[in-house]
Amino acid sequence: MTPLAPERASPQVRDRLRRSRPALRLGPVALRLRPRLIAVCLAVLAALAVLLALNLSLGRTPLSPAQVWAHVIGTDYEHYFTVWRVRMPRVVVGMLAGAALAAAGAVTQTIMRNPLASPDLLGVTHGASAGVVAVLAFGGSYGILSGGGPLSSLGVPAVALAGGLGAGVLCYTLARRGGVDGYRLLLVGVGVSTILMNLTLWLLTLGEVTDTGRAMVWVAGSLSMRTWEHAAPVALALALLLPLALASSRTLDALAHDDDVVRGLGVDLERARTALLVLAVLLAAFGTSAAGPVLFVSLACPQIALRLAGPGTSRPPVLLSALVGAALVSGADLLARTALDNIQLPVGVVTGCLGALYLIHLLVRANRRTRA
Amino acid sequence: MTSPQTTRSADAPAGARARLSARGLTLAYDDRVIVDGLDADIVEGTVTCVIGPNGCGKSTMLRALGRLMRPRAGLVELDGRDIHRTPTREVARVLGVLPQQPTAPDGLTVADLVARGRHPAQRWYRQWSGDDHEAVARALEMTGLAELADTPLSELSGGQRQRAWISMVLAQGTDLLLLDEPTTFLDLVHQVDVLDLVRELHDEGGRTIVMVLHDLNLAARYADTVIAMREGRVLASGEPAEVLTPALLREVFGLEAVVVEDPVTGGPLVVPVGRSGARG
What we know:
The complex is a heterodimer.
Chain A: H1 11-20, E1 23-26, E2 29-32, H2 35-57, H3 65-72, H4 80-112, H5 124-139, H6 155-175, H7 182-206, H8 209-220, H9 228-247, H10 249-255, H11 259-264, H12 269-291, H13 297-308, H14 318-338, H15 347-364, E3 370-371
Antiparallel strand pairs in A: 1-2
Helix pairs in contact in A: 2-4, 2-14, 4-9, 4-12, 4-13, 4-14, 5-6, 5-7, 5-8, 6-7, 6-12, 9-12, 13-14, 14-15
Chain B: E1 18-29, E2 32-43, E3 47-51, H1 58-65, E4 73-78, E5 81-82, H2 88-92, E6 95-98, E7 103-104, H3 110-116, H4 130-142, H5 158-171, E8 176-180, H6 188-205, E9 208-212, H7 216-222, E10 225-230, E11 233-238, H8 240-243, H9 246-253, E12 257-261, E13 268-272, H10 274-277
Parallel strand pairs in B: 3-9, 3-10, 6-8, 8-9
Antiparallel strand pairs in B: 1-2, 1-4, 4-5, 10-11, 12-13
Helix pairs in contact in B: 3-5, 4-5
Membrane topology (chain A): Multi-pass membrane protein
Keywords (chain A): Cell membrane, Membrane, Transmembrane, Transmembrane helix, Transport
InterPro entries (chain A): ABC_BtuC-like, ABC_transptr_permease_BtuC
């Protein structure tokens, strides 16, 4: 019953492998060291720092870099409200939501083995929209969510989270038959999303104009009026779920193959796929609850990260995807609120337009797969 | 399907133990029963080839032996334990499976594919270490792919790609290998090449190997035991010379054939008569 002890490999071949795929060892921990991936992550982090600075300094009250720095380190309080109560929460929520959505996309695309899959197709986005619109359109004028109403302590993000998770669970339940097949889940997800989208539109026609107006802003995906309270839940979700996703990297690697190969490698396929799907749905729901349905971030960012990571990368790297997501959303929001002089665009409109172009680009490049 | 009918190999080497056995195995996809009440034994240290016409259930049986599908009834025993009650990771350290048409994501290189085979030996905190370097290098060398380690899978020829997949299974370090049609889509030269490799793995590494093969003459040449299947049942099982007889070929394949002595190995060589053969 004991496996054969591997005979020795020739030192040349082993050393060549050791150079091309170095290992990072720390006590019992041994990880694959990927210098290029680390370099790209650092570069995106630097870009994030620049975007943060730009987001803090640009706006109706322009601040110089020196002024921004003085506020950040707390030696200047002249524009405290603008920096710490308006711009900082907005850019932080945008970055966190972008990171959560993109990480969810990276996991979803890997386990679905489809570069066009995203949590948008698992019902999460449209479920969140339907939930928020239902509550805003019918409860708005009676103050369910505002000023002492029964749901005021929970607020819109909680409703969005419940709607998103509910739709995710619905898709999973409908698609389940003995086990979850990725293809069936996507088809069910498209169907459920379409129904929820139409439900949302119908609800918008029913409510009072003032209430539905507010709901429309949320549905378009906007970062305006974001406070620190929006940042806390998604920050917590990222802090818990992102390390889990990173620790599952071997399983994600295996899940990129067909089912029989995955089972042959000793992966408990149903359990692994379900656990990672739940993780992706949670990340997407928390991201959506913080920023609204910021479209295409979860679709495009993993693919951008995959290309940034360079040749030999076979699936979207989760951490890099999250960083790209943060950069994309904060960049798009900067564009959305400064590009047109007096008009503030919802960030979802900008990411939607950028994402649509990218989607066409991906569709034009055929979706090739290696078959053996 | 009619009642199960099996012919157990009568002359398995005395004392040899069965590594894998199927007992009353019934396999079905949805409502379609593919294999009905099948018994089979895979004896330690042998190369077993499973033959039979298309759709006879040989691939399905191999999937069940490799715990890739759950039986409707009956069980598969690996070293005397029910394979579906053994943790799948534990099974993966003893038994390697190569499915019929495995797929890999775009951009994967040969060495990274082979590294996937190390999955059962790794942990979330020990993802890539010196042991993995050693095992992957060894697996690449055994299949002659060391020079192609950094080549994307998509740039390989069919034969090289098949070697890469076999290499992945070898990196698992198991002494029991199940290969589902390892020679499909390969020309004759590469078929012989892959089967020679399989034979070496047996002769030098002492591995127990089960293969599904289409070519009867290659099965005769490379197998210690041939299992002949038809309509989900085992019709015969034993040494190639016992199984590959004109009467059995008629029964299994509905094929009229003459069996002569293989001029290279002295084993059986199947020469189909067919319609063209009757012309002379």
